[in-house]
Amino acid sequence: MNKFDDQATKSLLDKNLITENQYQEITAYRNLNIFSLNAELKLLLYLSVLLFTSGIGILIYNNIDSIGHIAILSLLLIVIVVCFYYCFKNSKGFQKHETTFEHPVVEYLALAGSILTCIFIGYLQFQYQPFGTNYRLATLIPTIVSFFCAYYFDNKSILTIAITGLAAFIGLSVTPQDLLNNSNFYQDQTLSYSAIILGVLLILWTIYSSRIQLKTHFNLIYLTFALHIISVATISSLLDYFEYGIWFLFLIVLVASSFYFYKISHELKAISLYVFMIIYAYIGINIFLVRIFDSINFSDVWVLFIMILPIYFIGSIIMFIKLIKTFNKEIAA
Q: Transmembrane residues, as ranges (predicted)?
């Protein structure tokens, strides 16, 4: 037993929160140095699902001519049916609140079945085009399946797949590379509006689900997606639409979004939302300042401006650290 645990247990005894007998039992148990392998086993199961689904993809790619399309689709369908059959047989059914399963394998087989369903629909559409040229419909079907599985099997990993599919349905790619490049927003200006609407809808869904107490532990995932989607869309629009005179609308959206996520991060005690909210708000403020300063002639005070700039960034870093410390104190209180 480490020194910190010993001191913590001793303090409970000193405050009469536990008896001397309980203190001795806790000390004896901790001296056994027993540790749980639950997290490690779940990590191995998760990696096995990823490796298996990746292997299926590689198998299809390398043997697409020799195996045949019908054989590949049939194999995928059989594996999907087996995964979902086992999951439905051993699950407790749909529950409004957070659910734990007696068989931890159910969670990962449901994830494997959902990923393979996406592969199956995508491969079927690519090879035989049962939906014609309507690729959004081909995206929508596995998205609906993923949402159903996420709520039925209470699976957060499947929920991320479902939200990603929903974003793809409106034409938005949420891969890290595309988010950093913002290529989608520049190619299609209306996509910024669609992304903001999607983010707002995700927020509204968390509010509604909280009222009816429907899988409230999913709210953090929805809010994380909403924060990134709205912030990236508004920041890219601040850069793109400034010359058209409507940049202030996106600035208002970013301010409103930052205020909302500031409040909700405190309510949920979610430091991840708080940190990214600060980062996005800081980027938006700097874009706004650069645009304002760009319209002012700084030729006479340019040297002074260059000297102040390092101080500004150092002060920003210090302020960021103080905000994080203050947040941690507030949620710990």
A: 43-61, 67-88, 108-128, 134-153, 158-175, 190-208, 220-238, 244-262, 271-289, 301-321
Q: Rounded to whole angstroms, how far apart are CA atoms 119 and 308?
A: 54
Q: Of the candidates 140, 82, 137, 141, which has an alpha carbon nearest to the alpha carbon of residue 112?
A: 82
Is 184 in contact with 171 (CB distance < 8 Å)? yes
Confidence at residue 256, expressed as pLDDT on a 0 to 100 scale: 95
Q: Which of 183, 145, 175 is nearest to 162 (CA)?
A: 145
Nearest to 294 by CA among 242, 236, 235, 233: 242
Q: Model's pTM, two decimal places? A: 0.80
Question: Which position has the token pair 């303090």?
Answer: 11
Q: What are the pLDDT digits (tens) for 30-52?
A: 776 665 655 666 677 767 777 87
pLDDT at 219: 94
Q: Are 147 and 139 in contact (CB under 8 A)?
A: no
Is 238:288 a contact under the CB 8 Å cutoff? yes
The ranges assigned to domains in the chain are: 1-34, 39-169, 174-296
Mean per-residue pLDDT, 242-247: 62
